[in-house]
UniProtKB/TrEMBL annotation:
Domain of life: Eukaryota
Domain called NAD-dependent epimerase/dehydratase: residue spans: 93-381
Family: Belongs to the NAD(P)-dependent epimerase/dehydratase family.
Protein name, UniProt field: NAD-dependent epimerase/dehydratase domain-containing protein
InterPro entries: Epimerase_deHydtase, NAD(P)-bd_dom_sf
Pfam families named in the record: Epimerase (PF01370)
Organism: Daucus carota subsp. sativus
Amino acid sequence: MAHLISTSCSISIPSRSNFCSKEQNIVGTKVSFASFGSQVSSFSLKKLIHRGERSQRVCTIHATTLPLTEEAKTQPSSASTNISHEGSKKKRVMIIGGDGYCGWATALHLSKKNYEVAIVDNLVRRNFDQQLGLDSLTPISSIHNRIRRWKSITGKTIDLYIGDVCDFEFLSETFKSFEPTSVVHFGEQRSAPYSMIDRSRAVYTQHNNVIGTINVLFAIKEYSEECHLVKLGTMGEYGTPNIDIEEGYITINHNGRSDTLPYPKQASSFYHLSKVHDSNNIAFTCKAWGIRATDLNQGVVYGVRTDETDMHEELYNRFDYDGIFGTALNRFCVQAAVGHPLTVYGKGGQTRGYLDIRDTVQCVELAIANPAQQGEFRVFNQFTEQFSVNELAALVTKAGAKLGIDVKTISVPNPRVEAEEHYYNAKHSKLTELGLKPHLLSDSLLDSVLNIAVKFKDRVDTKQIMPSVSWKKIGVKPKTIAA
Ligand code: NAD
Ligand code: USQ
């Protein structure tokens, strides 16, 4: 049972690379961040509670924020009591990056499905917003309030560990304390434009992502050898080759001999490259140490609502629409809602795999429920449909017309270096074979994403819509993004 140990203890988020300045320490209840000459931000941490029987170091443990009297009063809702997962012993899932877009929705989904869930997050994503003057379209509560609200509605506890997975000491303590049977690793810097702002963000992205993942691999080897790693990779690792994209591996006949080899990787940003490096490191440790891992090469995610985040406004997920963290379809819906022309980069023939956020959570659940074998490095392509940017623009234009919105499209000079007209046919059958029931991009689904955009359109800062990061102009000098 969790118990209150302090309302003002000291936690430190360790500083690494240029990104984390000396000020990036949490002292008492106040946190300050300063980096790249941009804004300084702060937030409060309240009511630190830990799991007494498991925790070993006070500084790593930071769990629910419910007042204890309120915790005792809450009961599981009827919605949650009839859902359980297989197996006599509860599976313990550590969700790294559980305060983010995919991670938050997944944490709630798995908690509702009766998994024991812990979120590990250093909250750096919220700091990027403050540094760059960005904000989610949807208002999002603090992680503490999110978890408290979840507990009050469902009676279910989500443990919380605030810290950086690049700090191995911190990560070790979370492993020893929570003893995960699965780790879902979402906790990376995930924006391609962010990684292309300047040298320091490129270095930060690769350091954060590659070192964080290596640490997770070492933690599994050291503390939890049976633990299944479910790692979020990206379809962008493959690039846009002029042949079909397979799921992870391709069989090649060469000079009379044949072998099944990792599919060639041609990533097109320092972010996407960090995922390639992760995949190589994971594959190596599966062979060398017998780690069991699933690499989910996810396409672009869209939407914001899941059954669980819909339960209360304090459970709302984030929805990025800006030129750095916003992704194509989500951006187009917001642009339509505020009367901004849809920003098609270049010729608009760029084709990618897409999926609804409700399918992200489903895919992760399927991967956990059907784990890789010890020593296996399994790769699933995680998307449900392919679209070109022009096709997305046409779909949003049609959906806008139904709502009485006259949607226009402009061709913006492409800030990226990428093929604008190309062949694209990526396989994605392995998750379907495991039972994925996709939510395809129907008119009604697009209406619902557009409706969310319309509902919150007064929160949109239209200055953040146009792209501000150029792949070709990246330089050494720290660049401050104009607010
Ligand atoms: P997000 O930025 O919303 O969430 C990432 C979370 O990880 C944030 O809460 C952040 O604070 C945390 N984090 C980052 N570095 C950390 C560290 N060193 N230690 C602890 N926590 C850390 O991103 P998202 O959109 O939820 O993406 C999650 C994962 O899925 C990423 O790995 C991303 O590459 C992958 N992915 C996302 C998409 C998409 O369309 N959003 C598509 C394909 C793959
Ligand atoms: N694009 C436009 N206009 C826009 C925004 C994007 O034309 O306003 C184009 C881009 O040039 C690109 C495509 O749309 O060709 C997709 O861009 P995106 O910003 O939606 O997605 P991307 O940068 O690839 O990254 C996102 C997530 C990342 C994830 C990746 C999956 O941020 O974490 O890894 O999707 S994938 O694209 O399959 O690699």
